Give the backbone structure.
Amino acid sequence: MESTRQKKIGKLLQKDISEMFQREAREYTLGAMVSVTVVRVTSDLSIAKVYISIFPTGKKDEVFNNIDENVSKLRYMLGQRVGKQLRVIPELHFFIDDSLDYIDNIDRLLKND
């Protein structure tokens, strides 16, 4: 169960990481649209699990690998944004959120019946 503080920090990080991908970190997304679906922070606030959705899905692996290779630069950029609000900038772990693909697959299967 996430505490209120974890939820607030998760929302703050989600907003700031989303803005980073839209404005400053475009070179890491390789021209794809990256949206941050949810950020979950551990209880000690040291690790943030960032779930991202990548469109178009054809470049998903390439974009995800590029983001994963540049995670330290992204963390530094995040530190520039939220350094005044957080004492410790959490370590970022990125995961692909495939819930939209799952929903599309279920819709497609239901329409075929």
Notes: The chain is about 50% helix and 20% strand. The beta strands are 33-41, 47-55, 91-96.
